[in-house]
Amino acid sequence: MKIRLTALFILVLSHITLHAQEFEYELGEVTKEELAQESHPIDKDAPAAILFSKAETYMVYSERDGFDLITEVDMKIKIYNKDGYDWANKSIRFYDPGSNREEVDVSKAYTYNLEDGSIKRTKLKKEGKFTEDVNKYWKREKIVMPDVKEGSIIEYRYKIKSPHISSFPEWRFQEGIPVDHSKYVTKIPEYFTYTPNFRGYHMPKVTQGKANRSISSTSKQRRENQTTTFSTSKIDYIEAITTYEFENLPAMKEEAFVNNIDNYTASIEHEITMIKYPNSPLKSFSATWEDVAKSIYDNDDFGNELKKTGYFEEDVDALLSGLNTPEEKINALYYYVRDNMNWNDYYGYSCQEGVRKAYKEKVGNIADINLMLTSMLRYVGLEANPVLVTTRSSKIALYPNRDAFNYVIAAVQLNNKTILLDATSKSAMPNILPIRAVNWLGRLIKKGGISNEVTLLPTTPSIESISLMATLDTEGKLTGQLKDQYYDYNAYTFRERYNGLSEQSHIEKIEKKYNGITVENYEIANANIFGKPIEERYEFIHTNANIDVIGDKMYISPMLFLTQSENPFKQEKREYPIDFIYPRQDRYMISITLPEGYTVESVPQAVSLAMEQNIGSFNYNVIVNNNRIMLRAMLELNYASIPQDFYPTVKDFFQKMIEKQTEKIIITKNK
Fold first, then answer.
1. Where in the numbering of this chain does the DUF3857 domain appear (predicted)?
2. Residue 269 and residue 199 in contact, taking contact as beta carbons nearer than 8 Å
């Protein structure tokens, strides 16, 4: 958004003091001690660390362009080892649709190394800086720092000039490596009101101040004698200065079962809420999610596309001939669109090609395909509506705005239930969305733009059921058969992972997963029959199945090569939810026939573990029947997402489950 002042209030800055603030940390102040440091003093395993990051966002005004938003950034990074080399490269995304474009300028970019007791400084080379297109609206300015080695320090400064004062830049205090010091300063004239919104679980030290600024208003007057005179009047205004500061922020480390970690990383975003110039009416920008949804629905590339039906009516009438129930119609239309349309890999809630052209050419973006499906469902009398979604790869918005969403699916109300549909994935089904769209809440929009929230998280467990029958010989070798059945989201992920692969590729993946196994007579059923579980069957020989032969005894892990031996939860504490994506139920039925001449000495005791709040459970039982050992085990996780408050509970649960799985059956050779 570009703001220019009216003739009532033409501003020219009499003196610009909105330069970058003086910080206690400055570029160029690199010491031998810093270069000689071999590891981070707090996080010894860190591959790199940000010694300081600082930025300032302020506004400048010109008569020709109006207000611009300027952000200046300084960055100083220490590289400890080769795993940190990526931190010597920087990518700066900026908006460039052709007009009202942003500008990026990189300066003071150097690499420092300690060589023969002296500090060597290497400047960023011309070929180390380049611009690349992201799409037709966005570009990236990229730099690749020179002469980077273990122990290097790199630093750079860049400035972004933007005409869009409503789009304050996000500032990230926290990163995937330690941050020793981070500071962000905003300087905002009193005519603008922004609301700061914080992300993450750390809060910055905040200091506020004010500065008096002077602005000159220049006007001209043409006299009767054709001469022009200029007059200048001085206007004083107050600038609000806010500083946000952190010291010693820990690295934001990825761990198992995390959604988009950027949702929980300490950062700040600013929402413009009001502009009030002297002698001008107040302009409010506050909006609700309902306002946002209605504005999207009223867009020609959204609501108008839903109204178009002529291009498909004849085909749909023929398709549904003889079908009577709503369920039959939903399934027929869904699979018709899913199987005939092809997604072009572009996200968006606005149509790219338009539904008519997309239908004809059988290709389109997310909106082209799913708005088309919504329109067809409405055409046959079903209560269908689009649902705006934020994909898992995008951050959840902190305040209402149109950019909060980047995806749209369809929903049908039937028998007081909501059926969610996404026809852009060949592996999906009704109520089985592509994983990219399974992200907390969506916003369902009805005709006229009325909207409400709808949950996208699955509530029904997806089952994986494994049956294994094996015979053990005296050398510890197993031969047997395995059947693995995948239901619902487990079937979806299987199809996404394996569809299009040859049988040999399937076998190779199994043999890689279960080191030591040889797979024979592989079969797969229902891979393309939706609504039935996918079923894998194969025979196997395994020479490394968690079985140890020591003298006359054999030590056997009852779950054999299916044993989970490592806890996926390693951190002492966790500051973001545990995201299982969907509830799940893993069932195991294992039968092991013992070699002749052996007797069971001991088996693990049965166990039943349960977490609080019905989060999940694990049941495990081993029984002996003559020369056969039989195990039944079941893991249940009842929620798609679990708050971080329960992390100690979940971590402890998994640890106890793994300890039980790794307990041994002991069998002894008869004498």
1. 74-208
2. yes
Q: Which residue has the tokens 């003196």?
A: 15
> In this structure, how many other beta carbons lie within 10 angstroms of the beta carbon of residue 187?
22
> Per the structure block, which two tokens stand in for 43?
């996080």
Domain shared by 274 and 294, yes or no: no
Q: Is residue 335 part of a domain?
A: yes
Any long-range contacts for 518-525 (C-beta under 8 Å, 24+ apart)?
518/542
pTM (predicted TM-score): 0.89
Q: Please give the backbone phi and psi of residue 332, each rounded to the nearest 5 degrees, phi first.
A: -65, -45
pLDDT digit string, tens, across residues 555-596: 999 999 999 999 999 999 898 999 999 999 999 999 999 999
Task: Report the CATH number that the domain containing residue 363 is assigned in CATH.
Answer: 3.10.620.30
Cβ neighbors of 625 (< 8 A, separation 6 or more) are none
Residues 325 and 201 in one domain: no
User: Do 533 and 609 belong to one domain?
Assistant: yes
Listed in order, strand segments (DSSP E) in 32-173 are: 48-62, 66-79, 89-95, 103-115, 118-123, 129-133, 138-144, 153-162, 171-172
Beta strands at 553-556 and 578-579: parallel, antiparallel or unpaired: unpaired
Cα–Cα distance measured from residue 420 to residue 374, given in angstroms and rounded to the nearest whole number: 11
Q: Could you tell me the two tokens for 108?
A: 């003071």
Residue 131 near residue 139, CB atoms below 8 Å: yes
Query: Cβ of 287: how many Cβ atoms within 10 Å?
Result: 16
Tell me what the mean pLDDT of segment 118-131 comes to: 95
* CB-CB contact of 603 with 480 (8 Å): no
**Beta pairing partners, 486:** 464, 534
The domain of 364 spans 290-455
- pLDDT tens by residue, 306-340: 999 999 999 999 999 999 999 999 999 999 999 99
DSSP state of 438: -
- Are the beta carbons of 628 and 600 closer than 8 angstroms? no
284 CB-near residues (< 8 Å, 6+ apart): 273, 274
Q: Which CATH number covers residue 154? A: 2.60.40.3140
Same domain? For 513 and 585 the reply is yes
CA–CA gap between residue 526 and residue 523 (Å, rounded):
10
**Considering the domain boundaries, does residue 549 fall inside one?**
yes
Rounded (10°) CA dihedral 421, 422, 423, 429: -60
Q: Which amino acid is at 627?
A: N
Long-range contacts of 542-545 (CB under 8 A, 24+ apart): 542/470, 542/477, 542/478, 542/479, 542/514, 542/516, 542/517, 542/518, 543/476, 543/477, 543/478, 543/516, 544/515, 544/516, 544/517, 545/476, 545/478, 545/516, 545/517
Q: What is the mean pLDDT of residues 85-113?
A: 94
User: CA-to-CA distance for 150 and 480, rounded, in angstroms?
Assistant: 51
Q: Are 365 and 353 in contact (CB under 8 A)?
A: yes
Measured CA to CA, the distance from residue 269 to residue 141 in angstroms comes to 22
Instruction: Judge whether 605 and 664 are in contact, CB under 8 Å.
Output: no
